[in-house]
Design brief:
Length: 435
């Protein structure tokens, strides 16, 4: 790599870091750094803006607003309350039942909202105070809530999976990406249940309250309407009935029908508030996607992914060792850099590199997304941990001791997924999505 190219890369990433430090929003930081580097390299600005526009001109992108609207409606329609009650019915009578419920309901709600932060804000606001009232330590309550919320980033429909497909720009299918996430999502849930149950038994946390048969039947009936949104997405995408984008639109309409006509807890005013919130979120996401494509164009101009692969392969020819070191580096970066920025910055670099090393892009996508998501639950910049601590009214640094077993379980799960690609690829192969 020439001195000029090294200066350009330093300028690109250095600008991003500088903009983030002075609290420039991620989308503007990425766009500004790309523009500065393009001017340094004499890249025609038309090419840069054309690349940015191309990021929004895809059928894949259309899935994002539909899934966001569905998640917003389900969240504002209090579907999480019914899922908590349903999960309590299944596992509540075990030691530390409410904590186990926390993990299970995050798995279910993650399959509806697709967002870790939405999970914490919806479920955490309800279940953390309930756990504290039952005698659970607040730090433990936060640790369980925020780590289990990460299931939402890999259990479909995950917004982060859609962003990964868009940022990778490698001709990947959202439907296949979703299929690759089901078994890893279950594996993550099982991994998180190990420290959840172990600590609950060790500290002798309480059992949940027993309910009558009549009440249990009502809980099941109420929960099934909300869970059917997941059935719509899973069935339509796995059976080829609809694409992920079309399934998102169907599920969004169904979610609105359930909250308005069955649960009857969303009026016209609440509906407009939900839509306004979804549009507000979408505006920044659209800008972030556009600027990420400009960033990717600059990286491609510099041939950074290929040169990085060559440089790393000069250090070791063992692809597994190399990818393990990269995963650990991603986890370390997540301590200080927001997941959204990591996803935008690293996906265009790491996906071509991983494919050059012989990794399947869907498999490595699941691994990268989970590794980046660990940063959501670790201080000082993790959005989920900050939100959870605010709900529990505890300081983030006080949760570290209780958080560590869960973070180690997540790291171990990430390494397992890296070493055993069939966990991610089994379902896509089973339905013929990949060979």
């Amino acid at each position: 790599m020439s001195a000029n190219e090294l200066i350009a890369l330093a300028l690109l990433f250095g600008s991003i870091i500088f903009f983030i430090i002075i609290r420039i929003p991620v989308a503007f930081a990425l766009g500004g750094a790309s523009l500065i580097t393009a001017l340094y390299l004499d890249i025609p600005l038309y090419n840069l803006f054309s690349a940015a526009a191309s990021g929004l001109n895809t059928f894949t992108f259309m899935a994002v607003p539909f899934f966001m609207i569905m998640g917003q409606i389900m969240s504002d329609g209090h579907i999480s309350t019914r899922l908590v009650q349903f999960s309590s019915l299944l596992v509540g009578r075990l030691r530390g039942g409410t904590a186990i419920v926390n993990v299970l309901v995050s798995m279910l709600f993650g399959g509806i909202s697709g967002s870790s932060v939405a999970d914490v804000s919806s479920i955490g606001a309800m279940i953390i105070p309930a756990m504290k009232k039952e005698g659970y330590d607040p730090e433990y309550s936060v640790a369980v809530t925020v780590t289990s919320s990460v299931q939402g980033v890999i259990i479909p429909p995950s917004q982060n999976m859609i962003f990964f497909v868009i940022y990778a720009n490698a001709g990947l299918s959202i439907t296949t990406m979703f299929l690759a996430g089901y078994l890893p999502g279950i594996l993550l849930g099982v991994a998180l249940l190990i420290p959840t149950i172990w600590i609950a038994v060790k500290r002798k946390y309480p059992y949940s309250e027993k309910k009558s048969l009549k009440e249990n039947l009502r809980i099941v009936k109420d929960a099934l309407f909300g869970l059917f949104a997941m059935v719509i997405i899973i069935y339509s995408t796995t059976q080829g009935v609809a694409s992920a984008t079309e399934a998102a639109a169907i599920a969004a309409v169904y979610s609105l029908f359930v909250t308005v006509f069955i649960y009857k807890n969303m009026g016209l005013r609440q509906f407009w508030r939900s839509m306004a919130q979804a549009v507000d979120n979408m505006t920044m996401i659209m800008l972030a996607i556009a600027t990420s494509f400009a960033f990717r164009y600059v990286l491609s101009f510099l041939k950074a992914p290929l040169k990085l692969t060559q440089m790393l392969m000069a250090m070791t020819d063992n692809g597994t060792v190399l990818m393990t070191l990269i995963i650990l580096a991603i986890v370390a970066m997540g301590l200080f850099i927001d997941m959204g920025l990591l996803l935008m910055m690293l996906t265009p670099v790491l996906v071509p590199m991983a494919m050059n090393l012989g990794y399947n892009p869907y498999h490595i996508g699941i691994v990268f997304i989970l590794a980046m998501a660990i940063g959501l639950v670790t201080p000082p910049v993790g959005n989920a941990i900050i939100l959870g601590c605010n709900i529990a009214q505890v300081r983030a640094e006080k949760t570290i001791k209780d958080l560590m077993p869960f973070v180690l379980a997540m790291v171990a799960c990430t390494i397992i997924l890296l070493l055993f690609p069939e966990i991610s690829l089994f379902i896509p192969r089973l339905v013929g999505a990949i060979s």
